[in-house]
Specification:
Lysozyme-like_dom_sf, Membrane-bound Lytic Murein Transglycosylase D, Chain A, 5 domains, alpha+beta, 31 helices, peptidoglycan lytic transglycosylase activity, elongated, Lysozyme, 670 residues, LysM, single chain
Length: 670
Amino acid sequence: MVKRKNIIFSFALGLIGFLITTPILAGKTSKLFPLPLELEQDFQFWIRVYTEIDTYHGFVHDSDHINVIYNTVALPQNGNENIVKDQIEHYKQILLKIAQGKRKKLSAEEKKVLALWPKNITHKELRAAADRIRFQRGQADRFKEGLIRSGAYKSFIYKTLKASGLPQELAVLPHVESSFNPGAYSKVGASGLWQFTRATGQRFLQVNHIIDERRDPFQSTIAAAQLLQYNYEMLKSWPLAITAYNHGISGMVQAKKQLNTSDIATIRQQYKSPIFGFASKNFYLSFLAALEVDKNAIHYFGALKLDKPNSDEVVELTHFVPIHSLVQVFKTDEIALKKVNPALLDPVWHGVKYVPQGYKLHIPCSPTCRREKIIAFLAPWQEFDQQIPDKFYQVQQGQTLSEIAKKHGVAIDTLAQVNNLSHPYKIRVGQKLRLPLPELSSTKMLAKTEVKESYILNTNKVPTLTEYTVQQGDTLSTIAQRFGIQAHKITNFNKISDPRNLQIGQNLQLPIAESDYTIQQGDTLSTIAQKFKIKPHILAAFNRISDPRKIQIGQHLRLPAHMVITNYTVQSGDTLSTIAEQFGMNSQKLARLNGISDPRKIRSGQQLKLLGAITKDYIVQQGDTLSTIAQRFGITLQALLDSNGINDKHQIYIGQRLQLAQSPVDQVEN
């Protein structure tokens, strides 16, 4: 076996000069992240990779003794890398020739190769070295670009590490993983700034066909801190915890147990495992080299102008929202919003899926910041309580993914992405594929969902027609509930014979009743909203008011009667969940609307406010009268009679199904 201490590094004089001018890791860093003396030369190898040669050059070297460098190769600009194979074969033949015992009358190149090894190296060791030649591409240009990009993320990374009680030095790990590129994607499927694989990412992040938080530099930073903390708690050694980030925690636990040591140099040289390859063996050393170069960037690259720290505003969505609605409300363009929200996948941008509830939306801080409150101006019909449901297709005999994509008008890349398929897209008969809708251009998407309203006259009670385009997942009931209209009125007005036969893209005319209010001296949007029991942001959205401060005396406001708050009296046996379900509301919204901190503490007879139209059914019970039912649900007797086509208020029977629908105009007048 070749003894490492006897190995002579190529171009010895150059190395001595390099070592003299290279700052050395010291202080607290060396205690947490030690550099064993026997690994010093390999550490310098990685510094050279990061600072001396760019991606159009590389070292031909020994994979075990990586400081043994046979040649520096320039790669052709056309991408043809056959030269690498030729160089590896060339030096392999030189080593095999020397290993035959002919050490005299060597060519100048052969002497140079032999001089890289100890004088007493055996023929057997040279033959083994002939099979260990590999190529390492330079990274100097990428490292420099990574230094510039790191300016956008370093401050957040430092804060995250500090909050987790982790060493600040870990902030340089993205240099090794992605060169601080959030869009980085490896050939083995690792993604993002911190290069999470899908399996590891799903332990800490949302990774599915709608959202992939591995691509979010901020969420993935939090996840990386959690993973590193877990690794350290398991291994009690930062060199092993960092190696485990690449190799996996179970592998490093096994290495520690097998060799009965936590010494990284011993494990690197002696641990044997089929998956403990070159990348894993050198991951800790490449981290140390990145730490050295990052700390002394001026020494290696001169003064650099780093990217400004990220200053996006972040808004957590309380509903599912179409992406085009967010583009409209924030007055930004889709390209800008997409750039700062890389976690949102194609189905969202193509209008196939809504932006998920709970998603932390980044808003470009341009031209001004402090726009987070604008989210309140989403119209009621732009917010949804559920995601658009998935549609599936079962693969038939002889079909390919390309044929299925073409058949359904979907881009093959999109179809592959939502089904987590990697090239060459192998599918099997009987396999169920998620099937997104056909892609739509931004213009078509906006036109498809735009709500067009007719001109409103200045009268006290105005029925107006609103045009609505049917979306994926819509039913007549959900549309009626969203706009506070009775379902049968939609069917009658649009002459729909079978409510089940709604078509995506179908235009419906919705008869919505409204009232009109003229702004008086001293009015504010808040006081008007309070007067008519309407939430201020709903009133603003309904009137397309972007700045609530800019309303004027004499201005006419439309009052969306179907969104007015009504009352309900809690009955014996009621729970907040059953009441919310009965009236098509979210139980959390119902609790917030009524200031209820503990949903278990509601009592019989308590009055609850309900937002939205009451469109659920009720089964008549023993002792019921229409008057008591109307009173219980906070609606007028006449509205109950009208919605059920009843002429005689005394003619009801036990078991009869009644539709409970609040009269919109009556709601305003109450």
